[in-house]
Amino acid sequence: MEPIIVELKNVSLIYHDPFAETLAIDDLNLTIREGEFAAIVGPSGCGKTSMLNLLCGLTRPSSGEVLLGGNKVTSPGDGIGYMLQHDHLLEWRDVEANIVLGLEVKNMLNEKTRAYALDLLERHGLMEFRHHYPQQLSGGMKKKVALIRTLAFDPTLLLLDEPFSALDYQTRLHISDEVHKIIKQEHKTALLVTHDISEAISMADRVLVFSDRPARVKKEFEIKLNAPDSPIARRQAPEFRGYFDSIWKEIEYREKALQ
Amino acid sequence: MKKRSSNKTKKNAPATMSHEHAVYLSKIKRKERFVVSMRYVILIGFLLLWELFARIGVIDPFIASSPSRVVRTILSLYNEGSLFTHIGTTLYETVVGFLLGTLMGILLASILWWFPTANKIFDPYLVVLNALPKIALGPILIVWIGATEASIIAMGVLISLIVTIMTVLNGFNEISDSKQKLMLTLGASKWQIFVKIVLPASIPTMMSALKLSVGMTWVGIIVGEYLVSKAGLGYLIVYGGQVFQLDLVMASIILLCILAALMYYIVAYFEKRIIKWRKH
After folding, report:
1. To the nearest whole number, what is the mean pLDDT of chain B?
2. Which one of A73, A194, B198, B251 is most buried, counting C-beta atoms within 10 A?
């Protein structure tokens, strides 16, 4: 088995606001192994983003441990690339200046790392837009640039927080295919958080269904599809529908329970 | 590389255009030309009527002056050698006041952004200071600083400072949290967030703050000159009023118009240059 990259051990998180305290995550255990593409689906507001913030070191758990490569995560480090819902490319920087932002912030920008970032651009077909500004790019291209910005500092783990939800459906299918391809080609470990069940099944090797708040792993699905390794092709696989139904039922259950 | 991208945008425009498109374009051009020419018509018409009415006695040139008398006054100021002293004095005070007000405003806004608690504490004070007619502080300035040029500049700074702080701070606080979150996930320090995100993203707001504060500084400087001065356009206006030389008052006001407009356009020009990424 591949080595473990990320481990959450009995993690809980209490979230405070002026009106109340909320138990966002309760006794969460989770392991992600190298090279894996895992996805988390769950009802909205179930604490998925809180968990990503924990993994990234933006927040600390109230109890339990978050380990990245065996080390405790205490602050945002170089090991994690976090791709947010919106690309947030900086309008005043061209593509090249945008993709080196992470390197710049981490004081890692030198000839070698810049060359690596540009090589990523080249390999993923964006080199000719190197000096374009974000306003000149389509939504899908911006996503790819944002992904390359995240990959440029060579993180061990990629966190994808509903990265396609702001795109229209056509672009969404196309870009999830491309992003998947890039992540596989760069041999990255990725954790995708989404509310779109099809997206999770089509992209991930393993789908974790989260319970309603407080978040726990309710059920895990090993996804084995008889199809080429590309999200669009995987959607055509005969087993796809079965996975969809089982996951759907797991999430739907909560809504019945609520009523 | 830059050239290549501009070639590309040109490619999007059709090489040959339909008759309808040509008509559409000429319509836009005609409208534009109309707007610009109307501006000149109003200006020239106003000057001509002013001159005409003054000559045929509809208005009294002694209290309303006339364009030709204004020109004559400016020429005589020039011949006396005092024209550029007055213009120079006012311009110097305004530029210094504007730069000081802007720099201090941006600096103070940055400090308040950096310390959100301080921002909260000082908020009501800022609101009161903003509402206060700063002209009321004139006598205090004269007592504290003295009846000198420094008092005049201080007046200009006072009037523009609070507006600059408030506008720039608003701009800083409008930077979306998720852009800051992006920086935090990269492990950025507060300083890096400020320098790499907050400052560059607020340049458009800062530029509109500058356009505002240019006007405010002029108000402060002229008021300052009303209170204490031995030279400058504000001084000429007050002096002209006291000795009932309305030609001098009008001439100074017109010079002031030209200078204020010039300074505004200079700031606007810099705005265009600096925000070049906006055009992309």
Report:
1. 87
2. B251
**In Å, what is the CA distance from B248 to each residue of A135, B125, B149, B157?**
52, 41, 22, 27
Rounded Cα distance between B78 and B75, Å, is 5
Report the predicted TM-score, pTM, of the whole model to 2 decimal places.
0.81
Report the half-sphere exposure of B172 (CA within 13 A, side-chain side). Answer: 24
Residue A28 has pLDDT above 60, yes or no: yes
Write out chain B residues lying below 8 Å of A77, CB-based: 187
- B185 CB neighbours in chain A (<8 A) are 56, 58, 76, 80, 82, 84
Count of domains forming chain A:
1
pLDDT value at position A257? 54
In a domain, A258, yes or no: no
CB-based contact (8 Å) between B47 and chain A? no
User: What is the domain-level CATH number for residue A46?
Assistant: 3.40.50.300
Residue B180 with chain A: CB contacts under 8 Å: none
Question: Least CA distance to A158: which residue of chain B?
Answer: B185
CB pairs under 8 A between A and B: 58
A191, with CB counted inside 10 A (0-12, 13-18, 19+), is buried
ipTM for the predicted complex comes to 0.85
Residue A238 within a domain? yes
In Å, how far are A56, B9, B17 from B14, measured between CA atoms? 49, 11, 6
Nearest by CB: A131 against B1, B178, B203: B1
Per the omega criterion (within 30 degrees of 0), is the bond before A214 cis? yes
Q: Judge whether residue B10 has pLDDT over 80.
A: no
Q: Provide the domain limits for residue A123.
A: 4-244
